[in-house]
Design a protein that fits this description.
Elements: E1 3-7, H1 17-31, E2 35-41, E3 49-52, E4 55-60, E5 62-65, E6 70-73, H2 77-87, E7 93-97, H3 102-114, E8 117-122, H4 133-153, E9 156-159, H5 162-168, E10 177-178, H6 185-193, H7 199-202, E11 210-215, H8 224-233, E12 240-245, H9 251-256, E13 262-266, H10 270-278, E14 282-285, H11 295-302, E15 306-310, E16 326-328, H12 333-346, H13 348-364, H14 367-376
Helix pairs in contact: 1-14, 3-4, 8-12
Length: about 375
């Protein structure tokens, strides 16, 4: 049995791609017989220590900056008590999730104190932007600065996609490899066999209507408003509708756009997302966000959806050519509209692409595969 400590600045109930990666990797490693502990920030005022789904979680006290999106550890008595308790466990490996946070630096220093192997898994593919010249410049300076510190503390960096792998080189890092984002296919297939929510019946959608689905955070960078505009300007013979599952800063705008073709569903439980994907013909993620490898795309492939997405992140490593799906060069309204029109009208070609994508998914992007690679480290 190996003892593995994962430092992740955010963790459940905070929701995001990194948090899902952390949880699923931890569960897969435990399934292999390893002991896994997660160290995160107490950004929601929860218990300092608890077991969540069998995983011990240490939450370090912190200051919440940027509405909780950027926690910084508060080195007080409770912090020292928790760290002292962690030091009683002789870890074989420390995994640091992302480079961006002071919590990541703390994880690397913890590994040095433990004298154990440390790896950093990066989830970014470009600098973050808020479309403000000064603040974007300041953000870039910060990221280069903290990465310079981390390069002295950790020698082994990995990306969750080939795109992440290449992005690390921007910081003068020679990455050691790729530890892909992945899915728990066994769980998804079990959920697909269950009679879940019937979204067609709930929203009175006819059997011949093609359902196009978006799942994920409703933020501008993910292209949700462009997707809605593209659906509204499409002119195809088939009946189509767009179902939108998720929450975020664009929620009010999404709800305002609701119509017989645009159906906001809000935030859904995972089982309901899989039930929705089961009833979906085309999955669309028109993202311009600096994605690592979107989990939603992998889930859609596992649920037998035809995929339309962009070059952002690792999706093009799943859809390796146009016989697997459609990779758009950008997320302009016209580009999305043309891609979805093609996806709707190819009909029988969709089934071939779906089968090909799923076969590739199951040989490269499952947690059983990724956890074995981590154990081999």
């Amino acid at each position: 049995m190996k003892k593995i400590c994962i430092f992740s600045s955010h963790y459940f109930p905070y929701l995001g791609g990194v948090e899902n990666y952390t949880y699923n990797l931890a569960k897969a490693l435990m399934k292999r017989g390893d002991k896994v502990v997660i160290v995160t920030s107490n950004d929601m005022g929860l218990l300092a220590y608890e077991k969540m789904d069998g995983i011990p979680v240490f939450r370090m006290p912190c200051f919440n900056l940027l509405d909780g999106r950027f926690p910084i550890s508060k080195v007080n008595g409770e912090y020292r008590r928790l760290r002292k308790k962690l030091m009683t466990i002789a870890f074989d490996l420390v995994i640091v999730q992302t480079r961006f946070y002071p919590h990541s630096v703390a994880g690397m220093r913890f590994a040095k104190k433990q004298k154990c192997k440390c790896i950093t898994i990066d989830h970014g593919t470009s600098h973050m932007t808020i479309s403000s010249g000064f603040w974007d410049w300041l953000g870039r300076c910060y990221e280069h600065g903290i990465t310079a510190i981390e390069k002295r503390l950790c020698q082994d960096f990995y990306g969750v996609s080939g795109e992440c792998f290449n992005w690390l080189k921007h910081f003068g890092i020679a990455p050691k490899g790729i530890l892909y984002n992945a899915i728990d296919n066994d769980n998804i297939q079990k959920l697909l066999l269950v009679k879940g929510r019937d979204f067609r019946a709930e929203h009175q959608i006819s059997a011949d209507t093609i359902i196009i689905t978006y799942t994920g955070r409703l933020v501008k960078e993910k292209g949700i408003m462009n997707l809605i505009a593209a659906i509204n300007q499409m002119s195809v013979k088939q009946n189509i509708c767009l179902m939108i599952a998720g929450d975020g800063e664009e929620m009010a705008s999404v709800e305002a756009a609701a119509s017989d073709k645009i159906i906001p569903l809000g935030k859904l439980a995972f089982a309901d997302i899989i039930a929705l994907l089961k009833q979906t013909q085309i999955f669309c993620l028109p993202t311009d966000y600096p994605e690592g490898f979107p989990t939603s795309t992998l889930e859609a492939a596992a649920a037998d959806c035809y995929i339309v997405t962009t070059t952002r992140g690792g999706s093009k490593e799943l859809l390796i050519d146009d016989s697997y799906g459609i990779i758009m060069k950008d997320n302009r309204v016209e580009t999305i509209s043309q891609a979805l029109t093609q996806a709707v009208t190819i009909d029988t070609g969709r089934d071939v692409a779906i089968a090909r994508t799923k076969k590739y998914l199951l040989t490269h992007f499952t947690w059983d595969i990724i956890s074995q690679k981590v154990d081999e480290l």
